[in-house]
Amino acid sequence: MVRTLIAGNWKMNGSPASLAVIEAVVAGLGEGGPADCLICPPATLIAQAADAARGSLLAIGGQDCHAVESGAHTGDIAAEMLAGAGASHVILGHSERRADHNETDAIVAAKAEAALRAGLTPIVCVGESLEQREAGETLSVIDAQLAGSLPDSFANAGFVVAYEPIWAIGTGKVADTTQIGEVHAAIRQTLAKRFGSTGEGAPILYGGSMKPGNAAEILAVDDVNGGLIGGASLKAEDFLAIYAAAQ
Ligand code: PEP
User: Fold this and answer.
1) Which neighbouring-strand residues pair with 124?
2) Could you read off the pLDDT of 153-191 as tens digits, one per residue?
3) Per 3-state DSSP, what percentage of the chain is helix, strand, and coil (rounded to 5)?
4) Domain spanning 87-201 has what CATH number?
5) Ligand 1-lining residues (CB < 6 angstroms)
6) How far is ligand 1, taken at its centre, from the CA of residue 78, in Å?
7) β-pairing, 226-229 with 89-92?
8) Which is nearest to 149 in space by CA: 95, 107, 97?
9) What are the domain boundaries of the chain?
10) Blockwise average pLDDT, block size 10, the chain, 247 residues
11) Protein residue with its CA nearest to atom 8 in ligand 1
């Protein structure tokens, strides 16, 4: 049985006033249930968010990290710095970072190693473009991303994979449950083959316009072990409604 994870990605959104959202989520989770819950705010808010969430069911994560521990990398953040600020997870290889910062699979794999080194749980994102889907390349694209972005050390570590079709992120378009089921089953097979029992137990999240209105249907698909939620994680009410759908 894979434990469900409902994770929010605030992207480049949030100010100190947004800590009220963290507090509302903490209050709304209460004693919680069978699912884990995570919010990844911008780096500027991680320490305060972690303080606000301390002792609750809500975990706090980063949205990216550098591969090395320290050095001359202006503007970058080491995995160790995220951990020191109170993060427990880090999103890596999000399609926006792959596109905006030319992150390759090899770079993502190096960042994933860094996350493990710092004691963080990496959430590695994969997903096809609309053009690749229409060309019938979805499964081969995902397989290549998994092969290149997941380091061999995942065989001995806790990790998470997020399937995020690029065409469904922030667009309001959602992959249908058949499309989601097909990709998640293929990802599970690949993870189990490569990483054995660790691969069998790693949560596979769906991401792409998940909302309170579609969460229950998506979360019921085989091999969907949670969600990575962008826009709908910015409002406590919506995010908590998605969490409730995971029960
Ligand atoms: C995301 O940022 O990973 C995401 C899935 O965004 P949205 O839910 O807004 O589509």
Assistant:
1) 92, 161
2) 999 999 999 999 999 998 888 889 999 999 999 999 999
3) 50, 15, 35
4) 3.20.20.70
5) 9, 11, 164, 169-170, 207-210, 228-232
6) 24
7) unpaired
8) 107
9) 87-201
10) 96 97 96 89 98 96 98 98 98 97 98 98 97 96 98 96 94 90 98 97 97 97 98 98 92
11) 230
